[in-house]
Design a protein that fits this description.
The protein has about 230 residues and is α/β, with parallel strands linked by helices. It contains 8 helices and 12 strands. The strands form 3 sheets. Strands 2-1-3-4-5 form a 5-stranded parallel sheet, with helices on both faces. A 4-stranded antiparallel sheet has the order 6-7-8-9, with helices on one face.
């Protein structure tokens, strides 16, 4: 059965272009032109992915995302031309999984959608392990199987991308990763020179795990390369 995707976009020309392209990829796309209708559709059906524009009439995209996240962990790919709203959606507890800046190419959109759906299928279809795999660095603990992170025993509200970045660094504590390597490992996709996406996620992750995000101890910047785990 094809994956069902909910596209929330008030620009009908963009919506029709995206719908037509993804349906050629054997995906089922349902369209909502405003936030209120999107929430009604979401309540009535099960979706594998939400493609969400942030600039919507009436109920805006951030409010749609907040309400969706209050009851579901469905992957959300943001489509937006405003960096400030994208940063809010990716961090601050809103919980978006990824974003594409407008204007975007349909080839890149298709690649991002396939990568997200592939990861979601891996998470839901993987057999449960007898013992959880735990990664520990100083005050941080990451339960790999449960996709949960803790600091001093208190749970951290991390998004899926933040968890994957943290897992990558904690699994290789002495290795420095370039932005391209992080992108390929976390997004599971070809690198599109999208430095901003990585910087936004790392910045939000630091705000959640560091005592002082301005002087990070866990995620160190390696100038000219990328990031690595700090040493304790």
């Amino acid at each position: 059965m094809p994956h069902r995707i909910l596209l929330v976009e008030d620009d009908f020309s963009i919506a029709e272009m995206v719908r037509h392209h993804l349906e050629k990829e054997q995906l089922t796309v349902e369209h909502a032109a405003d936030g209120e209708f999107a929430l009604r559709l979401f309540a009535a059906h099960t979706y594998a992915l939400l493609l969400l524009d942030l600039m919507l009439p009436g109920v805006d995209g951030l409010e749609v995302l907040r309400r969706v996240r209050s009851e579901s962990t469905v992957p959300v790919l943001i489509l937006s031309a405003k960096d400030t709203d994208v940063e809010k959606a990716l961090g601050l507890g809103f919980g978006a999984d990824d974003y594409l800046a407008k204007p975007f190419s349909l080839i890149e959109l298709s690649a991002r959608v396939k990568a997200i759906l592939r990861r979601a299928s891996q998470y839901t279809g993987a057999p449960a392990a007898a013992e959880p795999t735990l990664l520990r660095v100083h005050e941080l603990t990451l339960d790999v199987e449960a996709h949960l992170a803790y600091k001093n025993g208190s749970p951290l509200n991390l998004t899926a991308k933040e968890l994957l970045i943290l897992k990558l660094l904690m699994s290789h504590p002495k290795r420095a990763f370039s932005k391209e390597q992080i992108y390929r490992a976390v997004w599971d996709d070809a690198y599109y020179d999208d430095y901003n996406a990585i910087q936004v996620h790392v910045s939000r992750l630091r705000e959640k795990i560091e005592d002082d995000p301005a002087k990070p101890a866990y995620i160190k910047t390696v100038w000219g390369i990328g990031y690595k785990l700090g040493e304790f």
